[in-house]
């Protein structure tokens, strides 16, 4: 923390002067001349008395442990990007999405790219996606989408965001533990299973939270409170629940790092935005004028949830056969060293919101939900090892913790390597990953029959490629969809299995009897155009 540089309470003589240029992902100011007072911009706390006997001292950046010229973290980030991009891009090229999310966000970004309101008909006709989640930060992709109007643009952005987050994690480890440990932990984090799952499950807004959390916590463990605050502030634009994580970080600043005013202000900022989004912003944009996800809150649902402490506890422990293994698997890549640091508490809001929900999809290791806890637990593990080292240097007994401090980075790298065979990295050496069969060619030829800007209804597999250039509706919303000009129907899609015997009759039934005529069929992929228009 700022103003504290060891057990004696003496301040570091070095300070930051000149411009406020910061290294990406480090939150550190450039080196300055020795002998000058600290002018980093945050108020210094008063010198503190020596630690009480038996008290574990706070870890501090070790002198000379800031390898500013080390380019290896960037090479690791490049390897992460080069690894993750094929996983998601080839899934798209195979027309094998895991959900409708890539189609939803493709249309969302397309609307911003053309300076339109984020109306996403894929989600529901006339649906403003800000009524679903508050994620305006995704609009940062819009200028790139305007130049490269493809779902691949979103996938590239997501892989890049995951890769860039490696640098602050690696730099934090190098600062606290040494260059070798920084490289090993950076690689372990970059290929951690939570990030793998994020890139494997299409695209989600939380990709932006990953580097912001990594940069904020990386700065915090090195005592750069101002940088930690600035990196945390934009998290409120990622998703409404991130404000609770900001609040947790702020409280940790106030209690653990003794930055009371700064920490409490940051906590207030996070809580204010989360509550504003949940109770004001999202209900304003929602067609139901309420927060959609209250319905999955169980006893915390204000609309008939019948809240009780016993009910809440029961809800948290419901599905423990899934939730407990998830917790164990989150901590395993850090060799459970994250538990040695209070920073691990920053993951509590995210996990609590998931585990209190009644939707079991939130509880497990699938999907993207564990990506945001990865930078938290890895930087907590770094801080945990630094605390063990500080205790050892203070002459306090460390018992079995000593080997964890010395070999923790290797254990983390080994755990990540062992888990790679159980998660999406295993797809890299599977030939099916890169196989684009003749059915895909038939589907792409069918989609080519639909002109740009037309209204079209289709199934889940074809949503994203059509959403990038047409006004696209999902056939699964057949109760609310208008009768679109075109319908593209893939009998191999998971939406309708087994496929209907008479596809034309089936799609006319989905459109309230509006008549269509077939203009294309190949390998079970049909294109229909509305008759008489």
Could you give a short description of this structure?
By secondary structure, the protein is mostly helical. 45% of the residues lie in helices and 5% in strands.
Helix and strand element order: HHHHHHHHHHHHHHHHHEHEEHEE
Estimate percent helicity.
Answer: 40-55%
**Overall mean confidence score, pLDDT:** 85
**What class, by secondary structure content?**
mainly alpha
Description:
This protein has 533 residues and is mostly helical. The protein contains 19 helices and 5 strands. It has helices at residues 72-93, 101-113, 142-147, 151-164, 166-177, 179-190, 193-200, 209-221, 225-232, 242-255, 260-285, 309-317, 320-331, 348-356, 373-393, 401-419, 438-448, 463-467, 503-510, and strands at 455-458, 471-474, 486-490, 516-522, 525-530. The protein is globular and about 85 Å long.
Draw up the topology in text:
Blueprint: H1 72-93, H2 101-113, H3 142-147, H4 151-164, H5 166-177, H6 179-190, H7 193-200, H8 209-221, H9 225-232, H10 242-255, H11 260-285, H12 309-317, H13 320-331, H14 348-356, H15 373-393, H16 401-419, H17 438-448, E1 455-458, H18 463-467, E2 471-474, E3 486-490, H19 503-510, E4 516-522, E5 525-530
Parallel strand pairs: 1-2, 1-3
Antiparallel strand pairs: 3-5, 4-5
Helix pairs in contact: 1-4, 1-5, 1-6, 5-6, 5-8, 5-15, 6-16, 8-9, 8-15, 10-11, 15-16
């Amino acid at each position: 923390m700022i103003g504290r540089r060891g057990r004696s309470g003496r301040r570091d003589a070095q300070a930051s002067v000149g411009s406020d240029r910061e290294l990406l992902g480090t939150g550190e100011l450039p080196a300055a001349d020795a002998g000058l007072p600290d002018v980093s911009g945050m108020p210094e706390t008063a010198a503190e008395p020596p630690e009480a006997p038996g008290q574990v001292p706070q870890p501090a950046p070790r002198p000379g442990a800031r390898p500013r010229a080390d380019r290896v973290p960037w090479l690791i980030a490049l390897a992460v990007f080069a690894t993750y991009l094929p996983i998601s891009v080839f899934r798209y090229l195979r027309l094998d999405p895991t959900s409708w999310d890539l189609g939803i966000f493709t249309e969302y970004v397309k609307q911003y790219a053309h300076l339109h309101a984020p109306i996403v008909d894929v989600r529901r006709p006339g649906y403003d996606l800000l009524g679903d989640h508050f994620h305006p930060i995704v609009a940062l992709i819009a200028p790139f989408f305007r130049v490269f109007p493809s779902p691949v643009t979103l996938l590239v952005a997501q892989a890049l965001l995951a890769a860039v987050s490696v640098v602050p994690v690696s730099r934090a480890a190098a600062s606290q533990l040494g260059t070798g440990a920084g490289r090993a932990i950076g690689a372990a984090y970059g290929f951690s299973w939570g990030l793998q799952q994020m890139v494997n499950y299409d695209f989600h807004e939380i990709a932006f939270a990953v580097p912001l959390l990594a940069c904020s916590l990386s700065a915090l463990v090195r005592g750069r409170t101002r940088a930690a605050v600035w990196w945390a502030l934009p998290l409120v634009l990622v998703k409404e629940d991130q404000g609770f994580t900001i609040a947790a970080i702020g409280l940790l600043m106030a209690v653990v790092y003794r930055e009371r005013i700064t920490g409490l202000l940051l906590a207030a900022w996070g809580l204010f935005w989360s509550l504003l989004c949940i109770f004001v912003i999202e209900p304003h944009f929602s067609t139901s004028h309420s927060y959609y996800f209250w319905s999955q809150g169980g006893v915390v649902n204000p609309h008939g949830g019948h809240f009780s402490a016993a009910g809440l506890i029961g809800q948290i422990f419901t599905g423990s056969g899934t939730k407990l293994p998830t917790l164990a698997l989150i901590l395993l890549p850090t060799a459970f060293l994250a538990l040695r640091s209070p920073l691990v508490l920053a993951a509590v809001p995210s996990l609590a919101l998931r585990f209190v929900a009644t939707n079991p999809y939130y509880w497990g290791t699938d999907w993207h939900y564990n990506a945001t806890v990865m930078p938290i637990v890895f930087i907590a593990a770094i801080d945990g090892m630094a605390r063990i080292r500080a205790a050892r240097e203070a002459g306090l007994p460390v018992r079995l913790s000593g080997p964890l401090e010395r070999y923790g980075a290797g254990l983390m790298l080994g755990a990540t390597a062992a888990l790679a065979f159980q998660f999406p990295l295993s797809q890299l050496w599977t030939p099916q990953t890169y196989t684009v069969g003749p059915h895909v060619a038939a589907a792409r030829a069918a989609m080519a029959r639909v002109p740009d800007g037309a209204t079209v209804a289709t199934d889940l597999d074809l949503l994203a490629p059509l959403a990038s250039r047409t006004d696209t509706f999902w056939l699964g919303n057949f109760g609310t969809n208008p009768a679109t000009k075109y319908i593209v129907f893939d009998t191999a899609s998971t939406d309708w299995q087994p496929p209907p015997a008479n596809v034309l009759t089936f799609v006319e039934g989905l459109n309230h009897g509006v008549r269509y005529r077939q203009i294309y069929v190949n390998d079970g992929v049909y294109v229909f155009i509305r008759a008489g228009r």
